[in-house]
Amino acid sequence: MTTTGRPSRARPDDGPPSPGGRASRGVVVAILVATVLAVVVLLPDLFDLDRVLPFAVTAALRPSESVIVAVVALLLLALRRRWWPVLVPVLAVAVVAGAVVVPRAIAGPAPPPGGTELTVLELNAFEGHADPRTIANLARSEHADLVVLPESGERMRSRIAALLPEYRTWTNVPPAAADVRGIVVASSPRAGDVTARRLDEGARYPWAELSGGILGPTRLVAVHLVSVVPEWIGYWPEELSKLQQWCAPGGDPSPAMIVGDFNATPDHSAFRAGTAGCTDAATATGGSLVPTWRSSFPWWFGAQIDHVLTRPGTDGTGPRARSTQVIAVPGSDHRALLTRLRL
């Protein structure tokens, strides 16, 4: 027996997917991939990715990278308008990343008049290869009261002492130590009876503490934190956390300054956590986006990883930054940071 009826209709999912459906899914995937990549490159600290490589590096370069990504996205939008679904989210992430760093280019209120003027010159001397004559000329011409030179040992100290005989010089490592491990400090006659001692805080490189003389009740800690490289990245967040002993409110009642090469910027979550309670002199004076590293890069690209941090004492008095200036010095992969303060 045979039966008759209407022919069955094929269901929509019985045949191959339409080209339009494949294209739509491809666009969605492209949007998601591009947006996620932009976020993890420009805003890795939102997810603590900035504590590992390579995102620790991309976080440090956020000021430059956000501008580059925004410019490239705008150019592609002008040339390929049909790509807008992918490019607009990327541009939005770049704008957010840029908005995070812009306040650091705006100077805060100037410190009140009065108090003692203090000028600090800091430079990572790149394993002692920075030109000592340039350093000495800068110290003298800018009337630097204190000079702090990470990656310097006895070899650099002796050269600076010969070029600046009126300055007192000191290093926190023995003569046989490699320059990369040490910090050299020089103090001018105006600085008075400044004393220095080595600090062994569990960091990979020893730090130093200056006190007395022009500093009065303020303690200055000279630091060199480990680099953000594969063999050191595991120690880096821990070393940044050690800064809390000088920055944390309610800790030491005396005012404090922390000066040196931190190998970190305010775009790193570990830096923000370790320095909470301290004020970055460059941020306070609107100069935080001028890179001190790497000196071989153009001035618009790089990271300011050298800092002068300040923290008032429990009575509210302490060092306040007046101005900061970044200066190129031959022989170093860093630029010098010249900071003028009032105590």
From TrEMBL:
Residue span of region Disordered: 1-22
**Signal sequence interval, chain numbering:** none
Q: Which UniProt keywords apply?
A: Endonuclease, Hydrolase, Membrane, Nuclease, Transmembrane, Transmembrane helix
What InterPro entries does its record include? Endo/exonu/phosph_ase_sf (IPR036691), Endo/exonuclease/phosphatase (IPR005135)
Positions of the Endonuclease/exonuclease/phosphatase domain = 124-334
One Pfam annotation reads: Exo_endo_phos
Q: Which residues cross the membrane?
A: 27-47, 59-79, 86-106
Coiled-coil boundaries: none
Superkingdom of this entry's organism? Bacteria
Which Gene Ontology terms cover its molecular function?
Answer: endonuclease activity
**Descriptive protein name:** Endonuclease/exonuclease/phosphatase family protein
